[in-house]
Amino acid sequence: MAADPRFDDAIHAPNRLRICGLLRPVDSADFAVLRSALGLSEANLSKTIRSLVDLGYVRTAKSASASRGDARRTTTVSLTSLGRRAFDNHLAALRDLAEGRLSPSVEHGDG
Q1: Helix, strand, coil percent content, the chain, rounded in steps of 5
Q2: Do the Cβ atoms of 83 and 57 come closer than 8 Å?
Q3: Which of 6, 11, 19, 62 is the most exposed place for a label (fewest CB within 10 A)?
Q4: Residue 21 in this model has a pLDDT that exceeds 50
Q5: DSSP of 24-78
Q6: 8 A C-beta contact, residue 103 and residue 5
Q7: Global pTM value
Q8: Contacts 24+ apart (CB under 8 A), 60-66
Q9: Which of 75, 30, 31, 85 is closest to 55 using CA atoms?
Q10: End-to-end Cα separation, the chain, in angstroms
């Protein structure tokens, strides 16, 4: 399905955009990998992911870690189909802008 160029204020915030960009080509990513790749604190990444979860753009899953000997669990993060579509549409709008075509549609998220 072709992207519908549409800015999304909720995705455009830098850390949200970067998270969506990292998640787009993969099925899921470990929280610790995202934290390391983005250089964010655990608290900042948690808050940003929570806002994307609240929008329905990402989902998280917790599971036992095979590599740990204790009871701690790992968290994986993935884009939902809604999040994937919103990100693709946002990128299409940015491409249009970069190529001199302005897109009149703007989505307003909560963030």
Answers
A1: 50, 20, 35
A2: yes
A3: 62
A4: yes
A5: TTSS-EEHHHHHHHHT--HHHHHHHHHHHHHHTSEEEEEEE-TT-SSS-EEEEEE
A6: yes
A7: 0.82
A8: 60/31, 61/28
A9: 85
A10: 27
Contacts of 69 (CB under 8 A, 6+ apart): none
Q: For 4, what's the count of Cα atoms within 13 Å in the CB-facing half-sphere?
A: 8
Distance CA(27)–CA(34), nearest Å, equals: 13
Q: In what order do the strands lie in the sheet with 29-30?
A: 29-30, 73-79, 58-64
What's the chain's length in residues? 111
How far is the C-alpha of 14 from the C-alpha of 48, rounded, in Å? 10
